[in-house]
Amino acid sequence: MSNQEAELKVLRDQIDSIDRQMHQLLNDRARCAQKVAEVKEKYQAGDAVFYRPEREAQVLRRVMERNEGPLPDKEVARLFREVMSVCLALEEPMRVAYLGPEGTFTQQAVTKHFGHSAQGAPFNSTDEVFREVEAGSAHYGVVPIENSTEGMVNHTLDLFKRFNLQICGEVELRVHHHLLRKNADDISGIKRIYSHQQSFAQCRSWLDSHFPSVERVAVSSNAEAARRAAEEGVEVAAIASEMAADLYQMNVITRNIEDQPDNSTRFLIIGDQEVGKSGNDKTSILVTAQNKPGALYELLQHFHASDISLTRIETRPAGQEAWKYMFYIDFEGHFSDPGVQTVLNALIADSVELKLLGSYPIAVI
Fold it and tell me: Does the pLDDT at position 359 exceed 90?
């Protein structure tokens, strides 16, 4: 045995020993999770809540705070996310509705937030996702709310007025768009490109430069674009994710064709539970202002008076009445905080209608 082989054998033996310890600890953690489920069933009966967004956010933050390397903080947090996902599945399998079909960025957001042990359920529209969660057929739903390039997803905002659901969390996903083809490995000969309309918008400059005269066909999702392109042959391409490329066995011709390199999308987790404080939270509301001059200014003054930072404000038509608007507002803090309570009470007094959409942990990873 050479000196190198001898040294490697020592290190590999150490790795094998560490793996055995990790395996034992993982099973110990899983057994503990099962006992947690038993205690909840004992004292809460049919009302037991197994998934606690605030608790998971706290665990992941602590993982990142105590990490000493060499693994990066967020990579360690992702490992723990998967451990928690597997353990939670032992307590109760999680069914999560999302905008399908399989291979969409929304499915990637489901996996990032809930881990691979969650059972994803694809639906054809965001409306169906809301309806499925409200009916209790899915524990949670994941819906897009905001893109760093294209702004807010207004249809999602409008659905919060129609459905009585809570925002239970958020997840941010870096979005990379790739040009995909079936049975080809370059960009020559493309006559049609499928994609979602927002993806076309996010890749507009690249497309104008490389395919100024090629037909662009908008479809319901990037995954649907990949499916059609895979079926229609070599003269057709799609803009979609790497997940979609794997799913429909397509070649990635050009990577990262989005115009903004930091292009990302924010998704919301919707459910029917009230989320406790995690220590670093955000609150979302819908508020309809009085139809009078300075109404919005008066509403915003309450946040300033309580020293609460706004993170987003968006205007939407309030309904049938012309020139009447509601405002979607995100701000820092939990609804149970005294300062937030003061603001909410003042808004109720000064507005036509206020709907608390929920308080939830700010995205950790």
Answer: yes
